[in-house]
Fold:
Amino acid sequence: MTDKSKETLEQLNKNKTEAEIADELGDLRTQLNTMQNTLNQLNSNQAASFQNIQSQGMQTQQGQQTSNQLLQQMSKIRNQAQQQQQQTQQQLQQSIQQAMNALNQVGQQVQTSQVLAQMNQFIDQAQQQLNQMGQQGMQAQAGQQGMHNQQNQGGQQETQAQRQQKQQGMHG
Structure:
């Protein structure tokens, strides 16, 4: 396998990997959106539950003191639950934002990688053109060399003919 073949295979594998990453990024974005929607539903359900608990507590109270204590306890529980819910929501929101940022960075890296791959292709094409130009130049040089050799051979034949004439002239 030539170096060029290896490079082509590596480039194909790289492009395949980038396509797989892009698919996974889409799946992750969908999952994050689903998580966000679920979180929003939980928030609205929890608020409705607190209202139901409060109204049921008011209906079942016996005596002013007991009702005040129950309301205070329920209020504390509700406040604690709301604080925990807010903290959890903020943490989830931060996690989702971090995941989105990471996805965007990966997306940018994939785009950068694709640009670099295109640049490599352009460089390869330029290299091939230079190689072709070099081969054409070598062929032209070879042609000139051949003409030069023919001229030399013709000159040598003339000198041999001249020598023979001289020798015949000396004998004659």
